[in-house]
Known about the structure:
The structure is a homodimer.
Chain A: E1 2-8, H1 10-13, H2 21-31, E2 35-42, H3 46-59, E3 62-66, H4 77-84, E4 89-91, H5 93-106, E5 119-121, E6 125-127, E7 136-141, E8 144-149, H6 153-172, E9 178-181, E10 184-187, H7 191-197, E11 207-214, E12 217-226, H8 229-247, E13 251-254, H9 259-270, E14 274-278, H10 284-290, E15 299-304, H11 308-315, H12 319-325, H13 330-344, E16 348-354, E17 369-376, E18 379-386, H14 391-410, H15 423-426
Parallel strand pairs in A: 1-2, 1-3, 3-8, 14-15, 14-16
Antiparallel strand pairs in A: 4-5, 6-7, 7-8, 9-12, 10-12, 10-13, 11-12, 16-17, 17-18
Helix pairs in contact in A: 2-6, 3-4, 9-14
Amino acid sequence: xxAEVITIGDELLRGEIIDTxxxxxxxxxxxxxxxxxxxxxxxxxxxxxxDAFLRAxxxxxxxxxxxxxxxxxxxxxxxxxxxxxxxxxxxxxPSMAAxxxxxxxxxxxxxxxxxxxxxxxxxxxxxxxxxxSAPGCMLExxxxxxxxxxxxPRELHEMMVEQVMPRVARRAGGQARAVRSAILxxxxxxxxxxxxxxxxxxxxxxxxxxxxxxxxxxxLRPVAHGATVAEARERLEAACRAIEDRLGVQVYxxxxxxxxxxVGRLLxxxxxxxxxxxxxxxxxxxxxxxxxxxxxxxxxxxVQAYANLAKERLLGVPAGMLATxxxxxxxxxxxxxxxxxxxxxxxxxxSTTGISGPDGGTDEKPVGTVWIACAGPRGTEAHDFVxxxxxxxxxxxxxxxxxxxxxRTLLGVAxxxxxxxxxxxxxxx
Amino acid sequence: xxAEVITIGDELLRGEIIDTxxxxxxxxxxxxxxxxxxxxxxxxxxxxxxDAFLRAxxxxxxxxxxxxxxxxxxxxxxxxxxxxxxxxxxxxxPSMAAxxxxxxxxxxxxxxxxxxxxxxxxxxxxxxxxxxSAPGCMLExxxxxxxxxxxxPRELHEMMVEQVMPRVARRAGGQARAVRSAILxxxxxxxxxxxxxxxxxxxxxxxxxxxxxxxxxxxLRPVAHGATVAEARERLEAACRAIEDRLGVQVYxxxxxxxxxxVGRLLxxxxxxxxxxxxxxxxxxxxxxxxxxxxxxxxxxxVQAYANLAKERLLGVPAGMLATxxxxxxxxxxxxxxxxxxxxxxxxxxSTTGISGPDGGTDEKPVGTVWIACAGPRGTEAHDFVxxxxxxxxxxxxxxxxxxxxxRTLLGVAxxxxxxxxxxxxxxx
Lengths: 429, 429
């Protein structure tokens, strides 16, 4: 079964908006084992739309169309689809009633141009839109099923899941197998290393393994197929366990669980608490940590010790230490972590101090040099890194590294420094 | 001149990544008055790619192709393009030398499969890639110019601007008018209000006005056309001045200048300094401020006073005040700003304290309630807001509001609270 996604709208071709509908639709299709072979976008132009519909009818079995269902002059998807395949437009009375009710509910006046949103090609099936004004429709033409959906992402998502996916799955019939997938999150291992370490884990017809980089992480995406949902789920679980066995603690979380959420869960389980002292990251570490709902159970706060004055006054870092070693140094990283831990009486404290760039580097301490310290009940550890990215990414990877280090410490496996570009060890400039 | 953009890669059709290259390329083309008529994406499949190339040759004058230039087995764009139009592949020695040099520079070994990245269709022109390993190329076939670029956005952007745009502009020749555009950044005004206030400013054939929402901002995008670059530039400047005249201080910046960069510039001009005290924003305000390169000239640091204990110990907020008024209150917001200003001796201090959600709201203080205070040489001001978004967006809009407030104060126009959902004033629950 070949699928095509067509998105419609001048704004897409002008590049004014990034088209997220295409990837959304293709990702959902994959969940029911339907593979997208073509994506295309066309202007709100009848000739171009007709051309795209005819080509799609020739080359695809199902076609998902998004956009052009609104009430304005530009919204001509339904009319052009009908014309392309020689269908008349007919008024769908239940949709008309739903439109009237919709406008009453949101307290806006229904304009005459809205009425066209209740007209559909003869022989098509109307797809309800409970959260917007534009219903969608399914039209079968020349052996291909066209599903027209609104371009507004929220409405599209609802209609895709509730109305379109069940119909597509039914059409795929016996051909469709059940599919289940997961995301396993890793940090600090390159994609080629992952590929090497996971060789053989997925090379059968039932489980495929994909890779996706979401800086600074690398995600693994096992996809399992089965005759039933239970079989697919079982195969997926086995694949996840096999991957976690090989990679161990390097897999830090599954699916939506972020690094900060994992750290928060581990701390909450232990009844332990965290504080931070940030120089080069300027607040990003605290921001990440407090993005977890309920963080107040285990995060007390911290200090953005950007200037030396702030390191002295808010954390008690001695001025002499700063003068002797510089702000980006092991003693200062240690003093920062210990200073904030002592002031807030937390179990753990993380500190960062470094040169994010673009300026401020020296031969001895190039841009990207960062010291991270982790203070806890058994003392303080500090390590330096040289990250090779731009200012923003150096800060992102610094925060992820600090959180991962605490995670490994909490799991009792931090004897080794997390894998990454490590200054001394890797001998990098 | 008709343009088409083709992006290539299985990962696009699986929906694993959102394709930002298409909108990027179309937006750049528009700057030189070239309009994109078709977007399409195909798999790493020779037959599908060939089909797409042939169709593009029939219907477009210039075709921008992204992806499939890497060293792996999947990367076949150049080979398929050559085959489609009956060209031989020939080794381009300068590219081979550049490849060898590139791998030496990044300290990685060059694998034999990398060598194919120096092979190009006979008669094509090689496009340099100074920041990656894959050069691009331009091939003219059947009257259409194909520009192949790497799929990695950073490399694509560089090649588009440096190599492709000048060549496309030259091909457009006399047909192309000069086009210049700008972004005017506003915060706190809705799109429909902007449309109303700017009515008539752009309704001639030479200047168009677009709108774009980039939460929490609304951007205006005037686009001016002229027979010459000078004329387009002059019209653009006149349009920008007219918009700024109408909206006044509500336009906070132009083009790439972020709110934090504007605040930093104003502080640096005055030789003044800033500190922050963040509760609900957890560090985001400091992070934004320190994302500006050179922020150390005017930002000293701050305190992430998430728990009450941190407000007391690090900022000296009295425990009694916290008990009486609660952490989300005017006295506490004031005490936080004043506490950090005093400790770091800065000219200005901003504080935030609120309920970001999803939990923690009450009837009196619903989720989204935020107090912001601004302490400075003429005393401390505080205001409360109720933001209607989710946790992450409530924090983003809080930070932008705090920065905008300081900006207005520095410009001497802060008598009014910035426009937004303001609790008491707007009578919201």
